[in-house]
From TrEMBL:
Cross-referenced Gene3D superfamilies: Bacterial extracellular solute-binding protein, family 7
Organism classification: Bacteria, Pseudomonadati, Pseudomonadota, Alphaproteobacteria, Hyphomicrobiales
Source organism (scientific name): Microbaculum marinum
Coiled coil residues, start to end: none
Protein name (Swiss-Prot/TrEMBL): C4-dicarboxylate TRAP transporter substrate-binding protein
InterPro entries given in the database record: DctP_fam, TRAP_DctP, TRAP_DctP_sf
Keywords in alphabetical order: Signal
SUPFAM superfamilies: Periplasmic binding protein-like II
Length: 330
């Protein structure tokens, strides 16, 4: 019996060691992405990000988990992007205007009247120039674009005076995100841009730090900005295309099937959310009208389109804009 026990003990030890190794391997194969966005929990984007997270977890059997944080709970975009560049397991919903701080050409996507439909925005993924810019972001700046199929709708000027021409914006201080293409776009269209984070817009309007903002309709209803704004001026000057970004270092360490799941489900959720937003825009527009805002739809669009070209000229992006638009067949 003593001899039998001595033979069993090493076997048990070996089995225990194998179990421990399996547990360790499993732990090493589990990844978490903490994903941040500035919008509120009632916005369609938040549900879209939640859907993305659920599908990725399902496809990877829980091996890749996305934790979604709304209302800039993890911090402002610029700070998050810098953490991404350092390799943190964190993601951010952002735009090409901010990415243009690293690769200037990509900023054209958020320029005035660059694309005119969701379909054009989705087709940007096939542009060779866009692919080159994304590669440069990843290899030289540590920012991996997972996808950019998230179209938030046309941005308009929301103010306390009616706007029909670029001249009507003269002297108006309009909130914009803090990025050159956005600043120059708003300046080219006739207003004075004021850089301000999204969460500061409502108090900024209350305190008269700004006279208005350029946003999409669902932003107005979600943040109750009808309480501090009177006019919705339908300039449609930017079709907002959002980019989902993570650390390229972190992404490259994922198993290949996890990478595929992250990208494919990002695109699927993005296109679904874009369609949802298109419906939500009409509902939000009706809601702001019910809440007392005046819709100004007799805008001189030709004058605004012509004025918008100056933004590309000032930033030296005219050639980049023309190149990508040519690849889209425009």
């Amino acid at each position: 019996m003593k001899g039998r026990k001595s033979r069993l003990i090493p076997g048990c030890v070996a089995a225990g060691a194998l179990a421990l190794m399996s547990t360790t391997a499993l732990a090493q194969d589990t990844y978490t992405l903490r994903f941040n966005h500035v919008l509120g929990p009632s916005e369609p984007y938040h549900q879209g990000f939640t859907n993305w997270a659920e599908r990725v977890a399902e496809r990877t059997d829980g091996g890749l988990k996305i934790e979604v944080f709304h209302s800039a709970q993890l911090g402002v975009e610029e700070d998050i992007i810098e953490q991404i560049r350092q390799g943190a397991n964190i993601g951010q919903n952002t735009d090409s205007a901010r990415l243009g701080n690293y690769v200037p050409g990509i900023a054209v996507v958020n320029g005035p009247y660059f694309v005119s439909s969701m379909e054009e925005a989705f087709s940007l993924a096939d542009s060779p120039t866009m692919q080159e810019w994304q590669q440069e972001l990843a290899e030289e700046h540590g920012i991996k674009v997972v996808c950019f199929d998230w179209v938030q709708g046309f941005r308009h000027f929301f103010t306390n005076t009616p706007i029909r021409t670029p001249e009507d914006l003269s002297g108006q201080r309009i909130r914009t995100p803090p990025a050159p293409i956005w600043q120059e776009s708003i300046r080219a269209l006739g207003a004075e841009p004021v850089a301000m984070n999204f969460t500061d817009i409502y108090p900024g309007l209350q305190q008269k730090a700004v006279d208005g903002a350029e946003l999409v309709y669902p932003n107005i209803t979600a943040a109750n900005m009808h309480e501090v704004l009177e006019y919705a001026n339908e300039t449609g000057h930017i079709l907002l295309v959002n980019f989902q970004v993570v650390s390229s270092d972190w992404f490259d360490k994922l198993p290949e099937d996890y990478q595929t799941a992250l990208v494919e489900e990002c695109r699927t959720a993005g296109q679904e959310t874009s369609a949802t937003i298109a419906d939500a825009v009409e509902k939000a527009k009706a809601t702001v009208a019910e809440r007392g805002m005046t819709i100004v739809d007799d805008v001189d669009m030709d004058a605004f389109r012509q004025a918008g070209e100056k933004a590309y000229e000032v930033l030296g992006l005219t050639d980049a804009k023309n190149k990508v638009q040519a690849e889209l067949g425009k």
